[in-house]
Design brief:
The protein has 15 helices and 20 strands. The chain is α/β, with parallel strands linked by helices. The strands form six sheets. A six-stranded parallel β-sheet has the order 3-19-15-16-17-18, sandwiched between helices. It has a six-stranded mixed β-sheet with strand order 6-5-4-9-12-13.
């Protein structure tokens, strides 16, 4: 019997699986990126030709305090390269170095270490500028700027709001809650309080449809409306290819520059799927840190996988479940959306609301199909809490064979970059 081989990445490791010749399958890779210019040139061009805004050096003024908000180490944005171009432009416009500071937007992620900040921003930046993590659980370091549609006080990291000018840096990739990352998300919920981060995900949990890849996503539109009130004055967003190389860069207004980046990202991340698969084998690559992050790689495949199909998710999860382990219990909860709605109506926004909101969203995934998490980062007991089966990474081949054996003539979809791909059934991309 002839066999074909495909390779999937998981963290720093690569796994090769053999697919018997009689199995119909599609290997759905990200669309290959055309040869692009040097990333430093792309960044320079973005600053020279911003979307919907003047050049940054024509916007800032001497004496202003400038807050740069950067995504954290769960993202691959080449922030050091961007700062290499941005900081001289700010100082060339007369802004004093001591008036510039950088905030790592954690959302609800764990704080970055000094070593991680150095790796992200560059040693010179960390030595010559003030750099610190955002705070989402310390009321003394947050300031209220309004009230959300659900009645939650919108509290933002105080240091950022004390600045005269706020600049956001991030990347645009598919996102399960906002359709696409980037843009206003770096501020809201990037540097907001924990309850606003929770509400952000509650909006996803209350939706019935898959929001991944939606351009005018209702959650994003709500976030952008409030960002207008808070004030995000400029963004720089990159789009990275499958090798994490810079594919495109946009800069300027937080909505117009973001949509420009999304248009570019769609060309890379939209993957046309020939037919609805019975079995999906997907790697969460390039996401790897924990299940809180890796679980995002499940939304896209779920949108095309047949109901009752088999879904194998290969994910390193080197830090285990992540910062909100209760999400596993909420994944297994029956009638999760109704329970979430009742909780919001009762005004119960306890500290685990975020875990509940994300767990309810992931609960739709584990009810749609049989999900097997192939990971050394979680145990079988933890997976069972989340209504998933579990296999170690070394058993990937065996797990695939067992999934295929459940169907008489299965169609298999293999997604090697599931952390970024948007499978689209029968779509032309």
């Amino acid at each position: 019997m002839k066999e074909r081989e495909v390779t999937l990445r998981c963290g720093e490791n690569r796994y090769t699986v053999k697919i018997p010749d009689h199995i119909r399958f599609q290997y759905a890779r990200l669309n290959p990126a055309e040869q692009t210019a040097d990333p430093e040139v792309l960044i320079q061009e973005a600053f020279n030709h911003p979307a919907g805004a003047p050049r940054i050096e024509d916007l800032v003024q001497p004496g202003q305090k400038i807050c740069i908000i950067s995504d954290d180490n769960t993202r691959l944005t080449p922030v050091a390269l961007i700062l290499k171009e941005l900081l001289p432009r700010l100082e060339g416009a007369g802004v004093r170095r001591e008036d510039i500071f950088i905030i790592m937007a954690l959302g609800s992620h764990r704080p970055m270490t000094a070593e991680e900040m150095t790796a992200k921003l560059g040693r010179d930046v960390c030595q010559n500028y003030r750099v610190f993590n955002s705070e989402f659980e310390n009321p003394a370091l947050l300031t209220q700027v309004g009230v959300s549609a659900l009645g939650t006080p919108i509290r933002v990291f105080k240091a950022a709001m004390e600045a005269d000018f706020r600049i956001g840096i991030g990347s645009v990739v598919p996102h399960g809650c906002m359709g696409w990352s980037g843009g206003a998300k770096i501020l809201y919920p990037g540097i907001t309080s924990a309850d606003i981060v929770s509400e952000f995900h509650v909006m996803q949990g209350l939706r019935d449809e898959i929001l991944l890849g939606m351009v005018e996503c209702p959650v994003r539109l709500a976030v952008e409306e409030w960002t207008q009130n808070i004030g995000l004055h400029y963004i720089i967003n990159t789009v990275l290819d499958e090798h994490a190389a810079v594919y495109s860069v946009s800069a300027g207004h937080y909505i117009q520059a973001h949509r420009k980046a999304v248009s570019s990202a769609q060309k890379l991340y939209g993957v046309s799927v020939g037919q609805r698969p019975d079995v999906v084998l997907s790697s969460a690559y390039p996401i790897h840190m924990d299940f809180w992050q890796c679980g995002k790689a499940a939304y896209g495949p779920t949108s095309v996988l047949r109901t009752g199909g088999e879904f194998l998710l290969l994910a390193e999860c080197k830090e285990g479940v992540g910062p909100h382990p209760q999400m596993l219990d909420y994944m297994a909860m029956e009638n999760g959306k109704d329970a979430l709605q009742k909780r919001i109506q009762s005004g119960d926004t306890g500290e685990d609301l975020l875990a509940m909101a994300v767990g309810v969203s992931m609960g739709r995934v584990v009810r749609h199909a049989q999900v097997t998490l192939v990971s050394d980062g979680l145990t079988a007991e933890q997976c069972e809490r989340g209504r998933m089966a579990h296999r170690p990474q070394a058993a990937l081949q065996q797990a695939l064979e067992q999934a295929l054996a459940k169907f008489e003539d299965p169609f298999l979809l293999v997604i090697p970059e599931g952390g970024e791909a948007i499978p689209m059934l029968g779509a032309e991309v």
